Amino acid sequence: MDQDGNQAGVVAVDQALRMAKEAELDLVEVAGQASPPVCRIMDFSKFKYDQAKKEKEARKKQKVIHLKEIKYHPFIEENDYKVKLHNLERFLKQGDKAKITMVFRGREMNYISTGRKVLERLAQDIAPLGEVEKAPYMEGRMITMIIMPK
Fold first, then answer.
1. Nearest residue to 140 (alpha-carbon basis) of 101, 114, 113
2. CA distance linking residue 132 with residue 123, whole number of Å
3. CATH label of the domain that carries residue 34
4. Domain total for the chain?
5. How confident is the model at residue 1, as a pLDDT?
6. Could you tell me if 71 and 143 lie in one domain?
7. 53 is in which domain, residue-wise?
8. Nearest to residue 75, comparing CAs of 99, 110, 125?
């Protein structure tokens, strides 16, 4: 193809180079595996610039999802629970996922069922904004659950 986008047909390499030099542009190989190889006459530096600009625009429009973590303990007080619930709601409204970690210290390991009840209550309270992506699972001294926004 020439600089106007018109098909030039099958042309010898030296003639194609001469055509590119006359137009003061570059001869760029578009499809090297084709038989014969397909080349195009264009301003390669402008092409690369436009391509980089398009990629930058595409990256701007991407939404990056972060994973926020909130830690709980099995015997959490009501006000502390509400504050952490409010933070969780804020994270989900921003479009971020949340990792809820129930941490057991020392003798709290005897009260795993209490910790699971707190997580179940949390899942019910947050149901309008988010849903449980990964159900609660035990990991050493912690129970972990992941919630994603609806």
1. 101
2. 7
3. 3.10.20.80
4. 2
5. 57
6. yes
7. 13-60
8. 110
Q: Distance between CA 30 and CA 7 in Å, rounded?
A: 14
* 63: Cβ contacts below 8 Å, ≥ 6 apart: 95
Q: Label the pairing between strands 142-149 and 130-139.
A: antiparallel
Position 4 in a domain: no
Alpha helices, DSSP H, located in 1-150: 13-22, 44-60, 78-93, 112-125
Tokens of 75: 């015997």
What are 1-39's pLDDT values in tens digits?
556 666 777 888 888 888 888 888 888 888 877 888 888
Whether 72 and 132 share a structural domain: yes
Q: Are residues 29 and 94 in the same domain?
A: no
Any domain includes 5: no
CA geometry: angle 135, 85, 131, nearest 5 deg: 35
Q: What gap in Å lies between CA 140 and CA 145, rounded to an integer?
A: 14
Looking at the structure, do residues 98 and 116 belong to the same domain, yes or no? yes
Q: Is residue 79 part of a domain?
A: yes
For residue range 95-148, list pLDDT tens digits in order.
Answer: 899 999 999 999 999 999 999 999 999 999 999 999 999 999 999 999 999 999
Could you tell me which of 73, 144, 145, 72 has the C-alpha nearest to residue 108?
Answer: 73
